[in-house]
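Section 4.2 – Deliverable D4.2 (structural model, holo form)

The reporting period included a commitment to supply a predicted holo structure for the target in complex with magnesium ion. Inputs used:
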Amino acid sequence: MRRVSIFGATGSIGQNTIDLIARAPDEYDVVALTGGQNIAQLAADAIRLQADVAVTADAARLDDLRAALAGSGIEAAAGAGAMEEAAGRPADWVMSAIVGAAGLKPGLSALEQGATLALANKESLVTAGALLMGTAKQHGATVLPVDSEHSAVFQALVGEDINAVERIIITASGGAFRDWPMEQLARATVAEASSHPNWDMGQRITIDSASMFNKAMELIETNEFFGVAPDKIETLVHPESLVHALVGFNDGALMAHVGAPDMRHAIGYALHWPQRRELPVERLDLARIGQLTFRAPDPERYPALRLARAAMEQGGMSGAIFNAAKETALDAFIEGRIGFLDMAHVVEDVLTQLSSDSGLIRAAFTLDNVTQTDHLARAKAQETMMAVATRS
Ligand code: NAD
Ligand code: MG
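Output (structure tokens):
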């Protein structure tokens, strides 16, 4: 039996992963499930999958989790130390589906014990790609992409020589506001930004899709994952969300991955890799769909793409700064402290301020340095937002 753990089990990716695993209970020995506030879901899934341990990130919820698991024989644990311990338990395959930079440490622990890490948590690659991929290499572990675009690229590259790749094109739906007039964007509300035209995902990535910060992070993710130079990575707005990515080769061929917008495609590919297995996803009827459309992203509408390119250009700790500033600005938008368009201003300000510190940008890629940079960028983002609030 394959030992599997799921970090972020109660989220959108976590639940889709559980859906696939629960279909073949005899094949999997579930080690750890982790979650946050949704104790009822976490406990129900731990019981259904007969996990060894269930962990909530919130130390204050231990008693609730214990009560929900009473009589099941499943261990309950809570808090950062418990997450760390659970992430270090031997497993063959681990789903990294926590949202945000909080996913970095558990992912590293899984790699240190040699697990295959199915990586949905793009923030850990954006923050510390070199550290994550370096840790995998050092411990003979494998990282598999679970973002739909990156899974698509990975599949298009099977049997190919990476040196023959001329360009990688990742597609973007354009998010909730793709057809809104620019002048309305400044007043976009959290509720409006939290509804996606094609995908059903967690709230944070849904808002990041509306601002294109999600695609911006995916540019960096592509660069870190496949080692392809930034100027060979492009984005295209593709409102139908059926072509997930295209890889262009030196003979002019473009290999596209086409499939329904269902994350079980990418999760299932990572779960069964290097094989392909039948998956419970919709089969596309292209005759009915009729047409697929593409357009270049409008740089004015989506400043996040330019900022990601600046971060890639600079390299080093810029990704950690970019991600931390973005997470802080996103929190502030969700809390109603800043407007929708202010998120990009905050990220740009923080990147500009910290870029002049070459000691910081070029620091060695240790977990300590990354964590310090992350904290510094979050503090700078708060300062920037305070300054704006005082002025207005
Ligand atoms: P979600 O908000 O639905 O779920 C997040 C999970 O992480 C939950 O289990 C939550 O309890 C846990 N969590 C949140 N903060 C935590 C913390 N500080 N410590 C520990 N656990 C914490 O998010 P999601 O949409 O499932 O996305 C998860 C990750 O996958 C993100 O990195 C996202 O960018 C990526 N991703 C998601 C999709 C999608 O379709 N949902 C697609 C591609 C990539
Ligand atoms: Mg994606």
